[in-house]
Amino acid sequence: MSSGEMVSLLTFLGLHAEQTKQPDRPALASELRRRLSLTAFSLDKVGSAITGRPPALSHRYVLTPLPLDVADDVLMVRDGGGAVAAAVAALDAGGWSPDGRLYSVTMWRARYPFMRIRDEIFEVALGPEAAISADAVRALKVKELVAAAELPAVLRFGESDVQDPGVSGRDLHMRLFMLLEHFQNLFFIERLLSRFDRAGRGDLLAVSYNMTSATLLYWTNMDGLGACEDFKWLVMAYAAPGGGILCQELLQPTVTASSHAAVTDRNGNPITRSGIVQVLSLLLGFLKWVSPREASGGICAGCRHIVQRVLDEALNGNVGPGDGRGGRGGGGDGGSEHAVGGVGWDSEVQLDFNFDLLDTFEWMRPEFEWSDVSQVS
Question: Is 248 inside a domain boundary?
Fold first, then answer.
């Protein structure tokens, strides 16, 4: 069943607008309907991010309450609803279970605020040009930061979680995935904000660095995370878009070469050219690991070629602001263009690797002659 068919059936059955009856007595059937509505809403936003099409299910029409943060086996108890009532009574004011456990519904429930904000991001980005204002985008950024701050503690990722034997692979995946959803929203927002302030690229570089490096944890910690998720698609959905910004920074340093305050990563460490090279080197290894037989194998191969050539250019060429020499290291106009694999790219062009994920939005990148990219791969 396609995403469009799923949304059509969902709205036909009215599962998107299920009003809460008072008194509310949660049961297995009602919770399953709420979970189905939440899953469809979330996957619809994922599909929009991939295809660049407007969401099929707007948050403005979703009235169904969120499912409860209770265990599946509690819903299955046949005692007249006593077990469910007791579990509901134990929930905190935010509707979360106080026992600190991650149930099958917990991640989907926590994902909803991010998906709702993403829906609002798409409304701004895919709506009329006149509707896009810096104030509206900044308001979305504030909402995103608040949503991340309100995430339950059990779903907040910490750097020590990777090496903590008390954190299972399943729990680590959920925490890391929530972090990626947050970073992706910030990535969209910063790309929109860059349309109004092209000089203020520090936040865009920071979120790109954070999103890419966080995704790489799936590959560098494959032993603990490999059984939790088929995460090959994550490299294209999260790591590669951020990697494009990092490639730009290597080819045309603007933030790392600035004399102003250093841009820092999520741990407070300054982002340097050396750090960017290390992250892109790991990204290159991740892309090489994806088999050509995979569904995204061809796309990953195209990304791999460009990342590798950008690294070659940065490490072997003459890249940097004010470089007036021509040839492989830069153009004769002061370094405003750099040749990657024999193709000259203007520094304002986003290296989006010629893949159809995320960069299908017109607002994500300027006009670009894709015939030039075909020469690279």
Answer: yes
Domain contains 84: no
Residue 140 domain flag: no
> Rounded to whole angstroms, how far apart are CA atoms 87 and 69?
9
The parent domain of residue 236 ranges over 200-318
CA–CA distance, 330 with 312 (Å, rounded to integer) = 13
pLDDT digits (tens, 9 = 90+) for 282-334: 999 999 988 888 777 788 888 888 899 999 988 887 555 444 444 444 444 44
- The string of pLDDT tens digits covering residues 104-161 is 999 999 999 999 999 999 998 888 876 678 899 999 999 999 999 999 999 999 999 9
Spatial distance between the Cα atoms of 91 and 177, rounded to a whole number of angstroms: 24
Q: Is the dihedral of CA 247, 251, 252, 254 positive or negative?
A: positive
pTM of the model: 0.84
The answer to whether residue 193 sits within a structural domain is no
Total of domains in the chain: 1
